Amino acid sequence: MTTQTSQAPILVIGKHGKTGVRVDRNLRALGFQTRAVSRSTEPEFDWYRPDSWNKALQGVERAYVTFQPDLAIPEAPQIMHDFVAAARSAGVKHLVLLSGRGEPGTEKAEAMVRNSGLTWNIVRASWFFQNFSESFLLDGILAGELILPKVATTEPFIDADDIADVVVAALTQPDLANQVIEISGAESITFQDCVQQIEAAVGYPIKFTEVPLDAYLDGMRQEGFEDDMVWLIEMLFSEVLDGRNAKPVNGLQHILGRSPATLDEYVSKTIATGVWSKEM
Ligand SMILES: NC(=O)c1ccc[n+]([C@@H]2O[C@H](COP(=O)([O-])OP(=O)(O)OC[C@H]3O[C@@H](n4cnc5c(N)ncnc54)[C@H](OP(=O)(O)O)[C@@H]3O)[C@@H](O)[C@H]2O)c1
Q1: CATH superfamily name and code, 10-129+158-184+246-260
Q2: Which amino acids bring their CB within 6 angstroms of ligand 1?
């Protein structure tokens, strides 16, 4: 294993995101300079304002790329096409793109990076555990009632800390260049398994209800969610969670030489952060 060093800052798109914050922290701990960006940073970076991209890309040779809100949305391929062109013009040499496992909608956007002529990696990850603690499932946990569309499969949830370790390896180890890295947790489990384990740890009841997907989507519309968010949830719960991704893969073990975090380990360390605590 060789490690690539350079004084140029590594761009991290998604500074406050579930993986971006960890990738940024780990790179800096290893002595790399970073430039972590989002809409609320200076320089600012907004996927929907291409005029904000150039300042963030100046002097950068490597970039970790997380798209918003999801790489599977229909607009992503064109935006990624334009972003790759801007990155190439700015002198970027290597892009590491975060994607999802078994999401057909992401393939066109991934292809923009794979066919860019730059060094590339696509890191395809399964569902993140951190959706329960740093994303859209947190409110339901804290409210003691989580309602989700019913799925008839299991999912090998992965820890964002593990994703960050793989991304840092891809950014810094030239022998990993130009490959799709598919990663998941080692245990294929249900949403109910996750909620039960969290409930046992937090010490307050969490009612978990699964409803038909159509009823869930109707509820979202009634609550005023925008059409593209409703589309995204439908795609995730009908395609990504139809069973195609239920089997764990071992890309992480190959690269890091260790096992991914279990649900138990995720819950233990997350309890310690206080994020599920109801006390002010
Ligand atoms: N969650 C999963 O289970 C899962 C699984 C597989 C793949 N993925 C992929 O993961 C990617 C997201 O990565 P992540 O979960 O690490 O990030 P994340 O947690 O979703 O990132 C959230 C941050 O993105 C920034 N952001 C929002 N809109 C933006 C915009 N228009 N331009 C620039 N920044 C914006 C926000 O910061 P500001 O408010 O400061 O802008 C926000 O704090 C998606 O592309 C998704 O497809 C997710």
Answers
A1: NAD(P)-binding Rossmann-like Domain (3.40.50.720)
A2: 14, 16-20, 38-40, 45-48, 66-68, 70-71, 98, 100, 125, 127-128, 131
